[in-house]
Structure formats: structure tokens, C-alpha cells
Amino acid sequence: MNNLRPVGVIGTGKYVPEKILTNSDLEKMVDTNDEWIVSRTGIKERHIAAPDQATSDLAYEAAIKALESAGMTGSDLDLIIVATITPDSAFPSTACILQDKLGAKGAAAFDLSAACSGFVYGLATATSFIKSGLYNNALVIGADCLSRITDYTDRNTCVLFGDGAGAVIVGEVPEGRGFKSFDLGAEGAGGSLLQLEGGGSRLPASAETIENKKHYIYMNGREVFKFAVRVMGTATLEVLNKAGLDRSDVDLFVPHQANIRIIQSAMQRLDLPEEKVVVNVDKYANTSAASIPLALVEAAEEGRMKAGDTVLMVGFGGGLTWGASVLVW
Ligand SMILES: CC(C)(COP(=O)(O)OP(=O)(O)OC[C@H]1O[C@@H](n2cnc3c(N)ncnc32)[C@H](O)[C@@H]1OP(=O)(O)O)[C@@H](O)C(=O)NCCC(=O)NCCS
């Protein structure tokens, strides 16, 4: 991959909806409490989309900021990838809706479904297209409105999720910088551990699917937790190995923000000190595909990376899937 033109991040933007749902708000909705949520997950609050906001609206706000920071407009884009599991509708894709709103006439646009790993899958896809010479400037967005598929009577899941969007512009960068390696993978056999069954071609929407709550996220928390801890470790070591780097070379670790205990287990395995790890799960909870870009963009806005720093992103999610990347900022 490294003998082709260097490709990296040339613009960043993020957006979270205004409304905040705190743990104490949730205490009034289900049998839970702040102490349980904070000690088991690290989450204190999450942002929730307004009734008139869909995933493309969150993605649009993040995209505008990313374009601005790259000094571009929509017409400079030739590829748009939206990683999401909560598209505005089955089709047209959320990426096509965005292409129109951004005035990115003629740009290729598609959605990518890899749940919480989707953003890293999107980065790998865009990087490959650009390195091949097919495209030059790609908008890659992770955006999700998990509140729309969360059952707010189920305490096992409703405390865990939030809404948001993070966007980057991917394009050519100076020699020595950019993406150094990717490690993407899946374990389809574990798909039923984390899923939304209803509304597809297997179980089309019906009065029965609604009654049986098939349009909400189902999760086997304990099994997903074990999978997450395992692949966060293995994918991180693998992606470093592919880049010819060592744990000690990592300047900033940007993990998927699902649960502070999963992040801490990865920190221990990699022997990473707190100051090298981005954590914002307390403010946003798990925003699925938006989680890694929200963390990456927030770290950039806070000046936590300087040119030449080695940034390691890693995520896991439904599928089951995982994705990791080494990026020289
Ligand atoms: C969901 C998760 C936080 C639960 O934490 P845990 O320590 O494993 O908790 P357990 O599953 O052992 O449940 C312990 C008890 O707490 C209860 N509980 C679950 N949610 C609760 C809540 N919000 N408030 C209070 N109690 C709750 C359970 O009902 C269970 O009670 P029981 O033992 O009487 O059945 C944890 O499993 C997890 O984070 N899993 C991974 C989730 C994830 O990352 N998903 C997204 C992947 S992209």
C-alpha cells in the first residue's frame, strides 16, 4: 500500500444534536441508576436527535465543517461514503441525499454497513480508491441516529446509545504522512449477538414485527463484551504489525467509544498511558459509526495531534465486525 501516493485526512468536522439525555433522565424511564451506568459503562450522558432530524441531517452538519476545514466545497468531492446502520430510509442511500445537499454533482455516493466499525471500513475504502487513482477527494462520514432503533423500555440497551456524526475529507497528503495500514475483519457467525431483525427482506415490517419489538436493537451484552475485548487487542497488534510499528510508537489511541471498561482493557494490553487515549464515551455514549470520528475530530479540535504523530483507530461492532487503522497525522 505504501508505494502508491500517500493518502490521509485533510479536513475534519463533527456534529451532535442539541438535546442531552442524562443518566438521571433515564432513571425516570427505566429501572436503572447513575451509579450502575457510570460504573459499568463510563457513560454520563448522550445526545439525541430532534424529531425532525434524520441521519443525513447530522451527517450534513459534520460534512460542512469538514469541507470548511479542508478549504473545499461540495463540488471538490468525487466520492462520498456514509457509514451508518440508521440510514434515512432503505434507499436512496444517505450518501446520495448528502451528495445532493452538498452540491457534490457527479460524485459517486454510497452507504456502507459495518455498524460501529463502519467508519474505519469507510476510510479503508476511500483510501484504496484514491491510491488507485480512481478518485481524488473523498468525504467519509460515520453517522448514526441510534435513538431511532433503541427500545427506551429496555434498560439493558437504552442506557448505552446516542446520536451523532463525524466526518473527514480523505485525500493526497505529503510524503511520509497518511494511512499506513488497515486491519478489517468480520465474524459473521456472531451476527445474532447484536442485531436489528425487522424491516429487511427476511422479516418485512408488519404489525407482528412491531409487536415483537423487532425494529429495535437486540444485544447479548456479555458476549459482545468478550468479543470486543478480544478483537480490540488482536486488531490493534495486527494493524501495528502491518505498519511495521510497535506499541510504543503510538502517540494517540482512538478507540470505539462503547464502554470505558473495554477501552481500559485495550489500554492495559497495549500498555498505553491515559494521556495517549481519547475518551469521550462519558459525553456521547456509543454512537456506532459516529463514535471513532467523533473522538478523532474532537482530539484534533483540542490540539491533541501534531503533524507526524502516529494515530491508531480501532473499533468493533455488529456483524460482528472490527476495523483498525494506523494514520500518520
Ligand atoms: C451491557 C453491559 C454494560 C452490561 O454490563 P455487565 O457488567 O456485563 O452486566 P451484566 O450483563 O452482567 O448484568 C448485570 C445485571 O445488571 C442488570 N442491568 C442491565 N442493565 C442495567 C441498567 N441499565 N441498570 C441497572 N441494571 C442493569 C442486568 O439485568 C443484570 O441483572 P441480573 O444479574 O439480575 O440479570 C456490558 O455487557 C457491555 O458493555 N457489553 C458490550 C456492549 C457493547 O459494547 N455494545 C456495543 C457494541 S458496538
TrEMBL record:
Active-site annotation: 116, 256, 286
Domain spans labelled Beta-ketoacyl-[acyl-carrier-protein] synthase III N-terminal: 110-188
The protein's enzyme class: transferase
Pfam families xref list: ACP_syn_III (PF08545), ACP_syn_III_C (PF08541)
Pathway field: Lipid metabolism; fatty acid biosynthesis
MF GO annotations: beta-ketoacyl-acyl-carrier-protein synthase III activity
Subcellular compartments: Cytoplasm
Reaction(s) the record says it catalyses: malonyl-[ACP] + acetyl-CoA + H(+) = 3-oxobutanoyl-[ACP] + CO2 + CoA
Primary localisation category: cytoplasm
Domain of life (superkingdom): Bacteria
InterPro entries per the UniProt record, alphabetical: ACP_syn_III_C (IPR013747), ACP_syn_III_N (IPR013751), FabH (IPR004655), Thiolase-like (IPR016039)
Span of domain Beta-ketoacyl-[acyl-carrier-protein] synthase III C-terminal: 240-329
Region (ACP-binding): 257-261
Summary of the function given for this chain in its UniProt record: Catalyzes the condensation reaction of fatty acid synthesis by the addition to an acyl acceptor of two carbons from malonyl-ACP. Catalyzes the first condensation reaction which initiates fatty acid synthesis and may therefore play a role in governing the total rate of fatty acid production. Possesses both acetoacetyl-ACP synthase and acetyl transacylase activities. Its substrate specificity determines the biosynthesis of branched-chain and/or straight-chain of fatty acids.
Subunit structure: Homodimer.
Similarity comment: Belongs to the thiolase-like superfamily. FabH family.
HAMAP family: FabH
Alphabetical list of PANTHER family matching this protein: 3-OXOACYL-[ACYL-CARRIER-PROTEIN] SYNTHASE, BETA-KETOACYL-[ACYL-CARRIER-PROTEIN] SYNTHASE III, CHLOROPLASTIC
Protein name per the record: Beta-ketoacyl-[acyl-carrier-protein] synthase III
Gene that produces this protein: fabH
